Description:
By secondary structure, the chain is an alpha+beta fold. It is built from 5 helices and 11 strands. The chain has helices spanning 10-17, 21-51, 56-60, 145-152, 154-184; strands at residues 2-5, 63-65, 75-80, 86-87, 94-95, 99-102, 111-114, 116-119, 125-129, 137-139, 141-142. The strands form 4 sheets. Strands 1-3-2 form a 3-stranded antiparallel sheet. Strand 9 (125-129) and strand 10 (137-139) form a beta hairpin. Helix 1 (10-17) crosses helix 2 (21-51). The longest helix is centred in the N-terminal third of the chain and has 31 residues, at 21-51. It is elongated, with a radius of gyration of 23 Å. The chain starts with a strand and ends with a helix.
Amino acid sequence: MISMKLSAKIGELEKALGDAGPKKLRQQVAIALNRTAKKTERLLAKEIAKELVLTQKEIKKDIKQQKKANPEVLATNVVQKETTRISLKSYKARQNKAGVRYRISKKTGGKTIKSAFIANALGSHAFKRTGKKRLPIQKLWGPSPWGVTVKNNLDRVVLGRDIEPELVKQIDRQIRAINFKKKQG
């Protein structure tokens, strides 16, 4: 789970707001926090996609902003749900003469599971027989994005490298917007 706490240029924002200070200040900080949380979702999905051969769309399904920040509560959480393993179908599994070829990591090559097959009648998932007979069969799975995040500490990497500067950038953006509105009259 990624959790963000506010610790940025509140003094400058307070000066830009002037008389409307405390009331508008909390509102502007909440806006900055929510924008930063949305960016966190994208950045975490991007980091996971660097490791896995999954689309960011598939990864983002389980990364959500839990509660939005508001003027009363200036905190927000971005949570990645603990997921089960994802079917090899999502890892671009393809059937060939030897079995099923798939690729999980972008850093390593593909692998082949001998005597596995893809059943179009069963949702185009990859299966392998567990005995000598036709049945039973076993569905084949790849790793979960949550497991990759935990194993590689990607949440801490994203939080330390990208999120704190993004929060400062969003608060600066709010300051510029307020000053622009003042100049417009």
